[in-house]
Amino acid sequence: MTLETWDGDDESAAGRFVPLYVLVNGRTAPRDSTLDLATQVVALPVDTRRLEPEYVEIVHRCASWISVAEIGAYLHLPLAITKVMVDVLVEQGYLRVGIPAQQKIFDLHLLDSVLAGLERL
Amino acid sequence: MDRTSVKIVVAGGFGTGKTTLVASVSEIPPLTTEEILTEASVGVDDLTGVEGKSTTTVALDFGRITISPDVVLYLFGTPGQDRFWFMWDELAQGAVGAIVLVDTRRLDASFPAVDYFERRGIPFVTAVNRFFGECAYTEEEIRGALELDPRTPLVWCDARDRPSSKLALITLVRHAMAKLTATAPA
Ligand SMILES: Nc1nc2c(ncn2[C@@H]2O[C@H](COP(=O)(O)OP(=O)(O)OP(=O)(O)O)[C@@H](O)[C@H]2O)c(=O)[nH]1
Ligand SMILES: [Mg+2]
């Protein structure tokens, strides 16, 4: 059997694509945002009356813990834009951030509980 | 109480059953989120240059499994259409590892995924999706064709079948734990 081997060329047409550089409220994505798409956030009990409607919508989605990717999916917002908007809300004290995936990956104890959770499925 | 996110990437070539696998184990019907990508040649510091440059939308499918009151596992399918490596980087960053789905009728379609995770030392398992029950190759032939490291687990699976997808996930987490234990400083 023969296989066409991939030469590892990341400069192929599709490999050249990067996220669109977006500007929301004077803030840029993806550079300023440290949020991962799996990071979860939750709304804090803060009055949202001064927020613009698009931001209020996000806060309402966060009544219980929810990931950046889920917010984007439910509100039909591209990920880069979702991240910046969530970032703004975190900074202004409307949302609290959970523990992002990348901080925890060398944690055997965590992997153990993931394993136990999967075995219960 | 804090909320911890855990990620697993479901990769493989176009149409190898990624979304089907995510759907079979997810507690919610798979969701889709989009990322807008633009050509790197634009230069990220050049805002004015963005207009009129070519952009494309990449769709990501994902599902979730609540592990415990404070831990949620997200399963992200890689975009099937093409090799949008930036998205792979974002998905793989901080992930436990990946399941690389393989369709035995088109082994080569999954080779870039195998290569991607191997080069970066990210734990992965290959899940051979038999589609119509029959497989023309032995495990050795598939391992040879994909140039798999002998330590990389290979499981047979039917992505539509929950116990089968569950086994692939469990095999991955065990493999990631073994790898972590092996490389941890004494
Ligand atoms: N017989 C059989 N069919 C399958 C299996 N897994 C997936 N399929 C079918 O194969 C087709 C492709 O599956 P998808 O899950 O959409 O594949 P995908 O990898 O997400 O595809 P893209 O995102 O387009 O790359 C669908 O029609 C599935 O129903 C399997 O294990 N056995
Ligand atoms: Mg798919």
UniProtKB/TrEMBL annotation, chain A:
A Pfam family hit: DUF742
Source superkingdom: Bacteria
InterPro entries in the record: DUF742 (IPR007995)
PANTHER family, per database record: DUF742 DOMAIN-CONTAINING PROTEIN
Name of the molecule in the record: DUF742 domain-containing protein
TrEMBL record, chain B:
Alphabetized InterPro entries for the sequence: Gliding_Motility_GTPase, Gpn, P-loop_NTPase
Highest rank taxon of the organism: Bacteria
CDD domains according to UniProt: Ras_like_GTPase
Transmembrane segments: none
Pfam families: ATP_bind_1
Molecular function via GO: ATP binding
Matching SUPFAM superfamilies: P-loop containing nucleoside triphosphate hydrolases
Keywords, sorted A to Z: ATP-binding, GTP-binding, Hydrolase, Nucleotide-binding
UniProt family annotation: Belongs to the GPN-loop GTPase family.
PANTHER family: ATP/GTP-BINDING PROTEIN-RELATED, GLIDING MOTILITY PROTEIN MGLA
UniProt name for this protein: ATP-binding protein
Organismal lineage: Bacteria, Bacillati, Actinomycetota, Actinomycetes, Micromonosporales
